[in-house]
Write a structure and sequence with these properties.
Elements (H helix, E strand, L loop, with lengths): L1 E5 L8 H15 L3 E5 L31 H4 L4 H14 L3 E4 L9 H13 L4 E5 L13 E2 L4 E2 L9 H5 L7 H17 L7 E4 L2 H7 L9 E3 L34 E4 L8 H10 L5 E4 L5 H6 L3 E3 L5 H9 L3 E4 L9 H8 L4 E4 L14 E4 L4 H12 L2 H11 L7 H13 L1
Parallel strand pairs: 1-2, 1-3, 3-4, 4-7, 7-8, 9-10, 9-12, 10-11, 12-13, 13-14
Antiparallel strand pairs: 5-6
Helix pairs in contact: 3-4, 8-12
């Protein structure tokens, strides 16, 4: 089977890129042919045979090229044209879309259907929803200027995006986002996709509010790599783990790993840290709030950590905290933490409650509530036996490995 994976970033940038790289790697191991389409970038690590990519678009950079962005983020003739070249050369059986809006635009969907008509070849279009872009123009269902959770655009009333300046707190960008959302809603473009994979039941519920999407959505939680079970997951006790990390080696710290940003709950967590000076916290990541992280007396900032070093940091924490304040769908961070036998305190927003078994493998607190978060951290920190119990319970969690996930994908989605 030939699979073309489409994502605007083809270099390590976030959770969606982790997803596409591991998905593609495993599909190739299974004997399928995989190529990629997206933006060209100096950090690109995957691609296609003919080297056809769109030009890089950086909305935060200057230059004359930005003058054309308002036109290109709604409909990209370049993306459609260059995507067509890859389709002509590769002739895929499946096109698997991921993050495409703005930089690539849904014009790539039209490229697939035009190729299909020309060659009289049926191509299955699959889309994995990594955020809420198809029902919310700013993709987060959150008003950036106030931090308020918002459902106003569900059902197709996108004008609130402009009113609240929901995209980068810019009136012009928000108007463009509103126009983009309305344009594709009127054309029913997203309804041309065959299957929409939602990584959480919460996300499925949100996308199902659009009648043109409801019949295509299915729920599949994300996957983790097999060797990430080695620190505490059930599979490692069957002899399948490969890591030397062991959950018995616990450090005396609480861990946060991820982006340092307001929507991630970093500021709320830092307030809790200040209220608990007797507890040591370790943060691993980068982001716009890094200076505030560095100023916290009882927080050790490890910066960006990856690979074995990150896994060891996770496995040796007493527990981790996931304080996100927007409706994340199926965070890899929560899954990885529990797979290594490390309990998680997570906010009760979005798909997180579907991953944490409160009172069994961790706990849930009210997202954005400093006092509730502080109390939960203090209670768990002062209950080492409870932490050990939660850690033992994590061994019974069976998230899909990438091998299991891809097997289901090929059997139930791609065919």
């Amino acid at each position: 089977m030939k699979v073309l994976i489409v994502n605007k970033f083809l270099y390590p940038n976030g959770g969606s890129e982790t997803y596409i790289f591991q998905l593609g790697e495993q599909l190739q191991k299974m004997g399928h042919e995989v190529q990629y389409f997206g933006m060209e970038h100096e950090g690109r690590i995957v691609g296609n045979r003919i080297g056809s990519y769109t030009s890089d678009m950086d909305f935060h950079a200057g230059g004359l090229g930005k003058l054309l962005y308002p036109f290109r983020i709604i409909y990209s003739g370049e993306a459609k044209r260059k995507m067509r070249r890859v389709l002509e050369d590769f002739g895929p059986d499946v096109v698997h879309l991921n993050n495409i809006n703005f930089q690539l635009t849904p014009s790539v969907i039209y490229a697939v259907r035009a190729y299909e008509k020309k060659h009289r070849k049926r191509i299955k279009i699959v889309y994995t929803a990594h955020d809420y872009q198809w029902v919310c123009p700013n993709h987060m269902m959150r008003i950036p200027s106030t931090g308020e959770i918002c459902f106003a655009c569900r059902g197709g009333d996108f004008k609130q995006c402009s009113k609240n300046r929901c995209i980068h707190n810019s009136r012009i960008k928000s108007i463009l986002g509103t126009v983009e959302a309305k344009y594709y809603a009127i054309r029913k473009t997203y309804g041309m996709v065959d299957v929409i994979i939602c990584p959480s039941e919460f996300m499925k519920k949100q996308l199902d509010t659009d009648s043109s999407l409801a019949n295509q959505t299915i729920m599949m939680h994300n996957f983790i790599k097999q060797d990430q079970y080695a620190g505490g997951g059930k599979r490692s006790y069957k002899g399948k783990g490969t890591s030397s990390i062991h959950p018995s080696k616990r450090g005396d710290y609480v861990l946060y790993f991820g982006r340092y940003a307001e929507e991630k709950g970093t500021e709320t967590l830092l307030q809790a840290c200040r209220a608990l000076p007797e507890i040591s916290f370790v943060f691993a990541g980068t982001g716009p709030l890094e200076e505030k992280v560095n100023q916290a007396v009882n927080v050790e900032n490890r910066g960006f950590v990856s690979g074995e070093a990150l896994y060891r940091l996770i496995a040796e924490a007493r527990f981790s905290v996931y304080p996100s304040e927007w409706y994340e769908n199926c965070p890899f961070s929560i899954m990885e933490s529990q797979a290594y036998g490390t309990p998680v305190l997570a906010s009760d927003l979005g798909g997180a409650p579907e991953l944490v078994q409160s009172g069994k493998t961790g706990g849930l607190f009210r997202g954005g509530d400093v006092q509730d978060l502080t109390e939960h951290i203090k209670e768990l920190w002062e209950s080492p036996e409870l932490c050990r119990e939660y850690s033992e319970n994590c061994k019974n969690i069976n998230f899909d490995t990438v091998e299991e996930y891809c097997a289901k994908m090929v059997k139930n989605v791609y065919r």
